[in-house]
Amino acid sequence: MSAIMNPTNSVNDLCPWTRICALDDIPRLGARIVRSAQGDIAVFRDAEDEVFALSDRCPHKGGPLSQGIVHGRHVTCPLHNWNIGLEDGRASAPDEGCSAKFSVKIEQGMVFLRI
Q1: How far is CA 52 from CA 30, 46, 80, 92, 94, in A?
Q2: Quick check: 68 and 102 in contact, CB under 8 A?
Q3: Pairwise CA distance, residues 88 & 47, whole Å
Q4: Per residue in 72-87, pLDDT tens?
Q5: Edge-to-edge, what's the strand order for the sheet holding 83-85?
Q6: Which are the contacts of 50, defined by CB distance < 8 A and separation ≥ 6?
Q7: Spatial CB neighbours of 93, under 8 Å, sequence gap ≥ 6
Q8: What span, in angstroms and rounded, lies between the C-alpha atoms of 92 and 75?
Q9: 54 in the Ramachandran plot: left (φ > 0), alpha (ψ -120 to 50) or beta?
Q10: What is the pLDDT of residue 38?
Q11: What is the per-residue pLDDT across 20-61, written as a single tens digit (0 to 9) for each?
Q12: CB neighbours of 30 closer than 8 A, spacing ≥ 6?
């Protein structure tokens, strides 16, 4: 069966949600790595138990964002202290660049990722 797209659908709408883990499996103010065909994805949890997913590569020099410090809705790259927005993957000014963002959601205490 093939998927039928209409003008209101995006390619992302056709990708299924994949259950990753329980929310409690991601440390508060930390991350968990998900391996995918597109490369490693860092799934972050902030102090308010919101989750975000970005490519695990800083746009500057490819540093592992999953090893960075989460503060508010940002993560600081452990290599050169670039601040990356968890909501959109964009580097904070004056730095420029972007890490790929992935859709993520929580349902009944479980974290789901759209890859």
Answers
A1: 11, 8, 21, 17, 23
A2: no
A3: 18
A4: 999 999 999 999 999 9
A5: 69-71, 74-76, 83-85
A6: 73
A7: none
A8: 10
A9: beta
A10: 83
A11: 999 999 999 999 999 998 899 999 999 999 999 999 999 999
A12: 44, 45, 70
Q: Residues for the chain: how many in total?
A: 115
pLDDT exceeds cutoff 90 at 4: no
Tokens of 19: 């259950």
Q: In what order do the strands lie in the sheet with 30-34?
A: 17-22, 110-114, 101-107, 51-55, 41-45, 30-34
In this prediction the pTM is 0.85
For 11, 40, 42, 58, 63, the CA distances from 32, given in Å and listed in that order, are 25, 10, 6, 16, 15
- The secondary structure of 17-60 as a DSSP string is EEEEEEGGGSPTTEEEEE--TT--EEEEE-TTS-EEEEESS-TT
Which structural domains are found in the chain, ordered by start? 26-114 (2.102.10.10)
